[in-house]
Amino acid sequence: MGALEAIRRLEAWRGQRVYVHLEVNPEAYLRNASGTLDEVGLFGEGLFRVHLRLRDPAALVYIQDVTEFVEDGSAIVMMGLDGQHRVRQTLTVSDTPLDVGKVES
Which of 37, 40, 70, 86 has its CA 20 to 30 A from that of 56? Predict the structure, then answer.
């Protein structure tokens, strides 16, 4: 899936509740945050910046240096890879809740 197709799919969800997973390795992790998708922005070439504005509740999601766009079932996965092709950051957006797994001790 290319960047334009990913953005086209996200634009189709404007006005609908979406679920967001954001992961920045090794520093941050946010799973199943949700809100109504209000705006979608894609900027750059090759290394993209993606902006999502949500409402109900109000939020802004931003990820930069995105190099890959992948469809995973009903989800759109946007990833930035490092120089060794390891996932550095991921933004996943879906119109259905994402699996949160379970915490094991």
Answer: 70
